[in-house]
Specification:
By secondary structure, the chain is an alpha/beta fold. It has 15 helices and ten strands. The strands form two sheets. Strands 7-6-5-8-9-10 form a six-stranded parallel sheet, sandwiched between helices. Strands 1-2-3-4 form a four-stranded parallel sheet, with helices on both faces.
Amino acid sequence: RYRRLLPKAQVIAAPAAVAHRPARLAWEQTSLPMLAQQVGAQVLHSPFYTCPLRADCSVTVTIHDATFFTEPEHYERSRRTFFRSAIRTSIRRASRVIVPSNATRDELVRLLDADRSAIAVAYHGADQRAFHLPSPRELAKVRARLGLGDLEYVAFLGAKEPRKNVPSLIRGWARAVAGRPQPPALVIAGGQGHDDEIDKAMAEVPSHLRLLRPGFLPSGDLAGFLGGALVACYPSYGEGFGLPILEAMACGGPVLTTPRLSLPEVGGDAVAYTGPNPDEIAADLTALLDDEERRAVLSKAGAHRARDFTWESSAEAHLESWAQAAMSGTC
């Protein structure tokens, strides 16, 4: 896969064992620095919070968010403890730290006294091949796959982790639509993570409402799914970037999210905002469902704003950071 993406680059595959976290962490601390030395690397980049403690070249690391500090109650204790320690260590060790938003950089500076000048912001982007304004065929295809017929729906696409606040979304949606003559369905797509509270919230949904959990959707269905929704709702407690709202915006889906951490940095004035509790979600979702003109404005504004976030720009920001790390020569 990577050789196809980079035909002129030397691609060295890691051992299969690194698919398991303990083996990956051990390999990152021992074999990876040796490999970097063998190939004469000027910079060693670690893409997920942790990085080698010792290396003969400059080390950079991506820290995707600071929510292990700002939203600790939404993580299991062992995971929270591990990532807090890893983030602190990486900030001390790395020549440069790369984050996906100014909000994440600000939190690292505020909470951990990190050096702002050593932190680079590289925004994420929306892949236009998967996330774009959908054609009528794409809209019809996803409706058929989900068995929706002519029923309208509210969409969620993302992980089922406690931080994503899916139980409050379910309860807020149910309160917003229960009394409508033709209540829109709620479709919760995506398959990663688990939150026991989701099952409890589902059990409270009135029997006349329709809630679908299709799991992962094929990439070819994502534009139709997000762009065909009355509202794409993402009431997260906080994000390091907020890729799901950017992807929904790129597809023309009117977005309802929370004004927490990086989400306003991504959504700006092109999305609607709500609070994280069910009553707030119900009130703001009701307002959007009742205002077709507002949804149309958000759809257009979101698609326009999404074009400002590209993976090409993200790559340029990474290259600049790596060049600065190489020039520093910090080991």
